[in-house]
Amino acid sequence: MRTYCALQMEFGCYDKDSGEVECYVEIHCDTGTSCAFTIQMPNPEAAGCVERFATFMSLLLVIITFPFSLFECFKVVQEFERAVIFRLGRLRKGGARGPGLFFVLPCIDTYRKVDLRTVSFDVPPQEVLTRDSVTVAVDAVVYYRIKEPLNAVVRVADYSASTRLLAATTLRNVLGMRDLAQLLSDREAISHMMQANLDEATDPWGVEVERVEIKDVRLPVQLQRAMAAEAEADREARAKIIAAEGEIKASRALKEASLVMVDNPMALQLRYLQSLNTISAEKNSTIIFPFPMDFLRSFMSPGAGTSITHSPLPV
To answer: Is this structure's pTM higher than 0.85?
Structure first.
């Protein structure tokens, strides 16, 4: 005769004081029988015998040399700094220390300070070939800061040098996708695009890129001359158009003034006196008086040339 029972399994792990991890499996049956299995595994994060002995000797050294050992055990970091501590090559728990006072053991603890202030550096001029095949030299300035001190120390060998090299490469890649006209007019958009690319690449290192600015764009001399000639020709063309429009407006104003003067002849005399007043105020030594046209009107009549009779010559 066969009997059946319902099984229940329990599984769990816990850390022991000896630094080992113990895992257990328990099987229970509804009939009241049960069995258990226990497995012990070493904890890779636990300190070994050698590390414990080194720690004990370091503490013993601190006690023997007390109070002189306090000068080597207590360290201070500023408000804008953080300290990343390693004990026998392993990163100590608790994250970065600071600001203020922290404790290290001599001979077994090493620490590295990380500055959290914003740092700026100049990107060297890069010879870039634009999309329309124009060679330009562009330099920029980058502002960045450390937001994760642990990642800046553990995940990258030299975050400052790596950020500088990445900025130079990113500048060349971003400018290579632009035309010369876009490069000269859309500097702000290029700066934002370069900042986004840099910030995405440096985020695993704990570095935050705050700002990128394009400083200078240097063009070849021949291209500068061609652009200057083009700009000068454009300005001259606009100047001629403006002068022509002014002449049109002036002619219309003179036409209206002549119509007013025809209706009222005294307006021409008043204008004449006003011109004399203006000339005399400028302290000129020579004054030109316009000859009135009405005086010559009698000589310009059709019969003026034939009114004079010649006497006959004596025979």
So the answer is: no
